[in-house]
Write a structure and sequence with these properties.
Elements (H helix, E strand, L loop, with lengths): L1 E8 L7 H17 L2 E9 L10 H10 L6 E4 L2 H4 L3 H13 L3 E4 L8 H34 L12 E4 L2 E4 L1 H15 L4 H10 L12 H8 L8 E3 L2 E3 L9 H15 L26 E7 L5 E7 H5 L9 E2 H15 L3 H21 L2 H24 L5 H24 L19 E7 L5 E10 L2 E7 L2 E5 L4 E8 L4 H11 L4 E8 L5 E8 L7 H5 L5 E7 L2
Parallel strand pairs: 1-2, 1-3, 3-4
Antiparallel strand pairs: 5-6, 7-8, 9-10, 10-11, 12-13, 13-14, 14-15, 16-18, 16-19, 17-18
Length: 547
């Protein structure tokens, strides 16, 4: 019985919990009919399918890598996604994790015809989504052209009467006063204080905060203008502030955007990350405070005290005083030849360590990682239908590059190897290689592998025994005598160590002779599991492949 999870979604307030219940009911009926065990559900409420920014959807994709289930069951494919590109990407992710996407209502056969049908359904879903968006945009444009609102909560400063915005004079007075004070050079914190003293509040009764005030200072609607997709609409919101006042506020906003780091610790607080509190041994961080006059002062303060994690009596220290003292002390130290020698030695040792870590092997490993990443991107492009001579050629080049780098890595690790063409066997897979390995103890093994494309391989023979496993999972390969109880012993060793078996296969040369038991696991295998399994007298060797 296959294990599955259900993913359900509804997109708007016009749909309700009943929609979710209906999806779950249909999916459960499908599972019961098709011998599928439902182990979990993922539900996104009032979430659009045109993008993947859905909490439970993302959680489902992440959980698929745990290999605890094999199927994602949906009511229809449009519940999974309405974007064909994102559908392809996320289906690829599920496929790599050994998970299949199944629609309960759309009978898609597991055949070449099914691929065409699924592609058509995905295309239709995206078409309907695009058509709906087009209709909505047309409706918005028509309403805005007529000077009508399109619903939602009224904007602060306005009321809505018969789908028309009218000025709320009380709120408009607050906006004009705030804009005027800001244009005159008052800080937001000072303006908020003044508004609070006068008892001014937002439309919902909440106090006016600095964050809320800044959002007002960036809202062009108060000039009577709304811009959407390059089109300007000037009949929706009556003007509250003048163009001159708006330009003055914009100039201040632009000035505040220039090098904001100067107001933070990145630039001004040159000792940030270098100071330790003498009392609690926590870091000192840069902070600022505004006086009653609006002037800003800068300090270094204990981080733990700021976050109230621990009790600390260290008072904030004026930034300029502390930095001047450190600079002066440093300058005095550099007058000493011995101190300069110590500094130079420290720099040399740090550089030496960094250089030592940057070995040829590490460079090759980084190069291999980049090549494999590029290879996977090409494979994804091909899976999305981007199949050209250029992509095919590039994939071939990358496959050769990956192989070449892997051989270079082998050389760096001290492995010696040679190649011998096999011209005798002609009825085998075209991309087949026999690897004959000899270790320092003289032990030998021959492994036959087949390249399946896209960086995927399949092991089909170990020594003279026919086997079959992909290497996509962590695996244990046990070489043993074909004796009763050996397989049971292996599974018990794994069970005792809480290892979950994904696949298990046994291959043998002949009855009572050498056999190979291959166990693939969902997760990483214990490093010492091999020593445990070797304790059985009938077991010759244990190899572990970690993925």
């Amino acid at each position: 019985m296959r294990k599955a999870v259900i993913y359900a979604r509804y997109s708007s307030d016009s749909q309700t919990e009943q929609s979710i219940e209906g999806q779950l009911r249909v999916c459960r009926e499908y599972a019961q009919t098709n011998d599928i065990l439902i182990v979990d559900t993922y539900i996104d409420r009032a979430m659009t399918g045109t993008n993947d920014m859905r909490p439970d959807f993302q959680r489902m994709l992440k959980d698929s890598a745990k290999h605890q289930w094999e199927v994602v069951l949906v009511y229809k494919l449009d519940r999974f996604s309405r974007d064909k590109y994102e559908t392809t990407i996320h289906k690829h992710t599920l496929k790599e994790n050994g998970v299949k996407l199944v629609s309960a209502m759309e009978n898609i056969p597991d055949s070449p015809e099914g691929i065409i049908l699924e592609s058509l359904l995905e295309g239709m879903n995206q078409y309907y989504s695009a058509e709906l968006a087009q209709k909505i945009n047309r409706g918005l444009k028509e309403s805005w052209t007529k000077g009508q609102t399109t619903g939602g909560k009224p904007v602060f400063g306005y009321d809505v009467v018969d789908k028309k915005c009218i000025i709320n004079e009380y709120e408009a007075g607050i906006i004009r006063e705030a804009f005027t004070k800001y244009a005159q050079g008052y800080k937001a914190v000072a303006i908020v204080k003044m508004l609070k003293e006068k008892g001014y509040r937002r439309k919902n009764g909440m106090p006016i905060t600095e964050k809320y005030l800044y959002s007002l200072f960036h809202d062009r609607r108060y000039t009577g203008i709304v811009e959407h997709k390059g089109v300007v609409y000037d009949k929706i919101f009556p003007r509250i502030i003048s163009d001159e006042l708006w330009q003055a506020v914009c100039a201040i906003n632009d000035e505040n955007k220039i090098a904001p780091s100067r107001k933070k610790e990145i630039f001004d607080f040159i000792l940030s990350g270098k100071l330790i509190c003498g009392n609690c041994k926590q870091r000192m961080v840069g902070i600022s405070g505004t006086s009653k006059t609006g002037a800003i002062h800068y300090y270094y303060a204990c981080q733990s005290k700021q976050r109230r994690k621990v009790q600390c009596n260290t008072k904030p220290i004026q930034k300029q005083f502390l930095e001047d003292m450190v600079i002066q002390t440093t300058a005095e130290m550099l007058k000493s030849a011995s101190e300069i020698h110590k500094l130079a030695e420290s720099i040399y040792n740090a550089h030496k360590t960094e250089t030592a870590d940057n070995t040829a092997l590490k460079l090759l490993e980084r190069k291999l990682k980049d090549a494999v990443k590029a290879q996977n991107n090409i494979v994804k492009a091909i899976e999305q239908g981007i199949i050209t001579e250029v992509t095919k050629k590039r994939l071939t080049e990358l496959e050769k590059e990956v192989t070449s780098i892997e051989f270079e890595i082998a050389k760096e690790k001290g492995l010696t190897f040679s190649f011998t063409p096999n011209e005798l066997e002609t009825d085998i897979h075209p991309n087949t290689v026999d690897i004959h390995m000899v270790n320092n103890n003289g032990q030998e093994m021959t492994v036959r592998g087949e390249s399946l494309g896209g960086g995927k391989v399949r092991i089909v023979k170990i020594n003279s025994v026919q086997v079959d496993f992909s290497g996509e999972y962590s695996a244990i390969i046990v070489i043993h005598q074909d004796k009763p109880g050996v397989a049971a012993y292996i599974t018990k060793c794994l069970s005792d160590r809480n290892v979950n078996i994904a696949f298990m296969r046994l291959f043998r040369e002949s009855k009572g002779e050498i056999a190979y038991t291959i166990v693939e696991s969902d997760g990483r295998l214990p490093e010492d599991i091999g020593n445990t399994i070797r304790k059985n007298q009938h077991i010759h060797e244990v190899m572990i492949v970690q993925m």
